[in-house]
Specification:
With 614 residues, this protein is mostly beta strands. It folds into six domains: 123 residues, Immunoglobulin-like (Sandwich), CATH 2.60.40; 96 residues, Sandwich (Immunoglobulin-like); 87 residues, Immunoglobulin-like (Sandwich), CATH 2.60.40; 80 residues, Immunoglobulins (Immunoglobulin-like); 78 residues, Immunoglobulins (Immunoglobulin-like); 77 residues, Immunoglobulin-like (Sandwich), CATH 2.60.40. It has six helices and 45 strands. The protein is globular.
């Protein structure tokens, strides 16, 4: 649907954009050390606990220094926080935007209520530190090169310009790094040539103030000038911690009258360009076209050429279904706004982003698929293809749904792939075909957590695509986990030195840094007295060794050794319900010895030997 912007002022807003685009950590020195404030993680409910890590700058030697717990929220914040975990993605984004606006409006009180602030008083004065904020296994934000016991003021606003519109002076500056630097407000001063500057707005202007479009856009109008003269304007930033930075300044000459505004009589789009015809425009004035896309909170200054009253400019490439065009006239210090924006349709032919499967598993007679959302603003839904070879069936899943389920029965050979479809019918590149038989799940499976002599043993099945495995541990008093180890993706076990009862989960990371969903959470279970059963039979069949035994009363390890080596290899971690195993990793002419062993016991179980014919 085409959006129409009312008024030219909104058209030229080069705003901050979406405040929920990233997670940030803002830090500054205090007389006692370093104070930290961070934004909550996006796309998930607000954590109850955060863990702060610190390292001397550049060393990478991280040390946990504190845990911050979220206090009980008041009714206003509680309603906003509840929407952060809502299934509706748009509702999540609105809640996060509102939360950040509240934080920037009143940083100390809001940060304390949300549990997203901390003051580190254990630093060495004037030393540099790096900080990381974790919520369980999720890295929320990080900051490097923070100097303790020293205030670091925010930078001066960039791109400050002044111009006259009618009888007012407008100030315009760039706000693209406001969130990054943690700038909460601005102060504006004016000085007539040769005189001292005066603050023209009594209170600082909130950078993300609710309901004030002019402050969101970095646009301020000064209509209090009475005499034609030269003026200097100063704009300084104030950060979340109350530090005011060095101001930027710009000179302007106020005039009694301004240029006349041109009018767009007609505007058309086609052949990758926009053509507009002007009326009532003095040829002595200069003009400048400005375009805004309906999907972005920013304006574009396109390349253009003019021939009298005809202006031609390149059509910007975008996934927007419309653009708004306006013209300004005047010079660098005196600009008169042109026309009511002309809204023109744009044909979108850019394909959306490809989706990514996050889960594909079978549960009984049901197959369940889940995938991650794509960032496309004009997303319409997803095309899910299912094939068994000769036949292919296509399903359309409306956005924002991210799951699909169906009855499976004996359909182990069924394969699936997914495409993204936007509102203009463009489709993304499909995902690779995947099946339940080839890829039962995209999340790790923690098989068991067992106490042994050296601590607590965790065992899991390997994931072929995993580059790293994270081990998360839940303490009795924490509702969010602590990452205790990062292992190679080929690892299948880990020993936690602690023997206290704890709960654990696994998270897999692929080669490009994507995190899987966590495994099911398992805790230590008291181990029954284990009796390793004897291997009843061992058979060489169809190029593999088949082993059979009676059901055990505990989980087991299956070991293998050869006559040519003294090394003992653990082939598998066996669930107590398993009574057979197929060993395909063998060579002809070799002799193998197998043994079932109880976990934590070095010398239990009986051995059996088999020779493989040459």
């Amino acid at each position: 649907m085409v959006r129409v912007w009312i008024g030219v002022t909104v058209l030229l807003i080069c705003a901050l954009g979406s405040v929920a685009r990233a997670d940030h950590l803002w830090a500054n020195g205090t007389p006692r050390g370093v104070v930290l404030v961070w934004s909550p993680p996006s796309g998930s409910p607000l954590p109850h606990h955060y863990t702060i890590y610190r390292a001397v700058a550049g060393t990478g030697r991280w040390v946990e220094i504190a845990t911050v717990e979220r206090p009980k929220l008041d009714s206003t914040l509680e309603a906003v926080v509840a929407d952060l975990g809502h299934p509706d993605l748009q509702r999540q984004q609105r809640a996060r935007s509102l939360l950040l606006r509240m934080l920037f409006k009143s940083a100390p009180s809001v940060a304390m209520q949300l549990g997203i602030s901390f003051e580190d008083t254990t630093t060495t004065p004037l030393a540099e530190y790096d900080y990381q904020i974790w919520a369980g296994s999720l890295l929320v934000a990080e900051q490097t090169g923070v100097v303790s016991h020293q205030h670091t003021p925010p930078p001066p606003p960039r791109g400050l310009a002044a111009r006259q519109r009618s009888h007012c002076i407008e100030l315009w500056w760039n706000l693209d790094s406001t969130i990054t630097w943690g700038i909460a407000a601005f102060t504006v001063y004016r000085a007539q040539y040769g005189k001292s500057p005066l603050r023209i707005i009594p209170q600082p202007i909130a950078a993300l103030s609710l309901g004030q479009d002019t402050t969101i856009t970095g646009l301020v109008r000064d209509c209090s000038i009475r005499a034609a003269a030269g003026y200097t304007y100063y704009v300084a930033a104030i950060d979340l911690f109350g530090n005011e930075g060095i101001p930027s300044h710009v000179d302007v000459q106020w005039r009694p009258t301004a240029h006349r505004a041109p009018t767009i009589a007609e505007a058309t789009s086609g052949n990758n360009q926009i053509t507009c015809r002007l009326v009532g425009f003095p040829p002595t004035d200069s003009i400048r076209p400005i375009v805004r896309l309906n999907t972005q909170q920013r304006c574009i200054l396109p390349e253009f050429d003019t021939n009298g009253t005809i202006i031609r400019l390149a059509l910007p490439e975008s996934t927007a279904d419309a653009v708004a065009l306006a013209l300004v006239s005047g010079d660098s210090t005196s600009i008169s706004w042109a026309s009511v924006p002309q809204v023109l349709p744009v044909v979108d032919s850019i394909p959306p982003n490809r989706p990514v499967f996050s889960e594909l598993e079978r549960n009984g007679n049901n197959v369940r698929l889940r995938w991650l959302p794509t960032p496309d603003a004009d997303l319409a839904g997803y095309l899910l293809e299912r094939t068994n070879g000769p036949d292919t069936i296509t399903y359309f899943v409306h956005a924002p749904m991210l799951t699909f389920s169906e009855r499976a029965f004996d359909r182990q050979g069924i394969r699936y792939r997914l495409r993204t479809v936007d509102a203009h019918g463009n489709m993304s590149v499909p995902t690779p075909w995947a099946s339940v038989a080839e890829l039962r799940t995209l999340r790790p499976e923690l098989l068991a957590v067992t106490r042994i002599d050296r601590g607590t043993l965790l065992a899991w099945n390997p994931l072929p695509w995993a580059a790293r495995m994270l081990i998360n541990r839940y303490e009795d008093t924490l509702s969010t986990p602590i990452t205790i180890a990062m292992l190679d993706g080929r690892a299948i076990s880990y020993v936690d030195p602690t023997t206290e009862p704890r709960w654990y989960e696994l998270v897999a990371i692929d080669s490009i840094g994507n995190y899987s969903l966590p495994s099911r959470r398992l805790g230590y279970q008291p181990m029954h007295r284990c009796i390793a059963p004897a291997i009843d039979s061992v058979v060489f069949r169809d190029g593999a060794v088949m082993l059979f035994w009676s059901q055990a009363n505990s989980d087991l390890l299956l070991e293998r050794s050869t006559a040519q080596s003294d090394d003992v290899v653990v082939l598998a971690y066996l669930d107590r319900t398993m009574t057979s195993f197929r060993d395909e990793l063998i060579k002809q002419g070799m002799q193998y010895t197998y043994r079932l062993r109880c976990i934590g016991k070095e010398h239990t179980g009986t051995s059996v030997t088999i020779s493989i014919p040459p």
